[in-house]
Amino acid sequence: MPELPEVETVRRGLADKLVQARIETVRVSLPKQVKRPQGDARAFSQGLCGRTIQAIDRRGKYLVFTLSGGHWLVAHLGMSGRLLVKSSQALPAAHTHIILTFDRGLALHYQDVRQFGGLALWTADPYLQAPLAKLGPEPLSDDFTAEGLYQKSRGRKLAVKSFILDQKIIAGVGNIYADEALFRAGLRPRKAAGRLSRKDCQGLHRAICQVLEEGIAAGGSSIRDYVGADGHTGGYQLTHRVYGRKGQACLVCGRPLKSIIVGGRSSVYCPHCQSS
Fold first, then answer.
1. Which amino acids are annotated catalytic?
2. Which of 52, 55, 58, 85 has its CA 20 to 30 A from that of 125?
3. Alpha carbon distance 152, 145 (integer Å)
4. Which helix (H) or strand (E) holds 148?
5. Tens digits of per-residue pLDDT, 202-224?
6. Contact by Cβ (8 Å): 18, 52
7. In sequence order, what are the beta bridge partners of 101?
8. 8 Å CB contact between 68 and 62
9. Could you give the maximum distance between any two Cα atoms of the chain, in Å?
10. pLDDT (tens digit, 9 = 90+) per residue, 103-130?
11. What span, in angstroms and rounded, lies between the C-alpha atoms of 39 and 25?
12. How much is the pTM?
């Protein structure tokens, strides 16, 4: 699933091309990818046509298009969703389920092989309602602090890996960047969140911010389906220290990396470097 760096990379690519563009037509070939109004392709299309994109922002793993007339378009890419900017004359590739065309000769294609994502049209501020209103702080904002992380961890018995994957704790962190951050912080994935010291949380806070910033700078991690809005792959997967490297040598100590299941998710770590 695309995580914060991937979604932010897509956001930047979309904003560069589509801010102030007016939606001329909407084509929906798979109504179930319309999440609001649920499955109603006609109402979705009528609500979008003629509106101008005023801004494109990100909240956690969601993209939020602010439209003219007090409307919003919210996109979630799910496991395999792609938002690609193309010429309005471009033919749709396989698994393209929604196409928006614009007044400047461009089109936005939503592709989704696994169909877990989708687009939602809101007529009330989505930031004030679920799911966006329930998200935790943005990890690259001033609202995300080491002390806040420490306080939220108090009394929590769940593993620290599951703790930082909880979107109500931190918005946007997923499996890739959780593994990478825990490695940098020297913390084992199964360590109980409630056993984190303030020093642990300071190191984890720093590591989370570092890996997310590096991921954005590299255009995200292209593991399976992810590409940016221009169709280009990211490059951060080339520098992963643990994620996807089960059995390989640790880049720091040279010992083999191990894989365990934490909260139903595969987690790769170094038993030597992550000793805490």
1. 2-3, 61, 265
2. 85
3. 11
4. helix 146-153
5. 999 999 999 999 999 999 998 87
6. no
7. 25, 107
8. no
9. 59
10. 999 999 999 999 999 999 999 999 999 9
11. 18
12. 0.95
